[in-house]
What we know:
Blueprint: H1 2-7, H2 25-41, H3 44-72, H4 85-104
Helix pairs in contact: 3-4
Amino acid sequence: LFYGMAHRDLLPEWLSRTDSRHVPVPATLFSGFLVLISAIVLPFESLLRLSTMLTLGIFAVVSLSLWRLKLTTPVQETSFNIPVFIPVISVFCNLSLMLIQLVQSPHFEY
């Protein structure tokens, strides 16, 4: 993620550097550093809740993107084709799971 964003000039250039085998070492080390700091600073249960919420949120955004693509791009015979309601159901399910998690435990402990 950091490499891709840096490669598109959304993050500092040093995160887009690669070694001789095209491995994004600085971005990988930076990601590992952030995970290490999060694991040290945050309680385990809060880290679980946060990662679950982020994952569900990302799935919802991806489903919304798929829905938008489905509505705005013409259908090609070789393309992957799904019914329009599938991304909508996916967004509803992801947001429902996020809401359930927020209602059950509305606060994060730091």
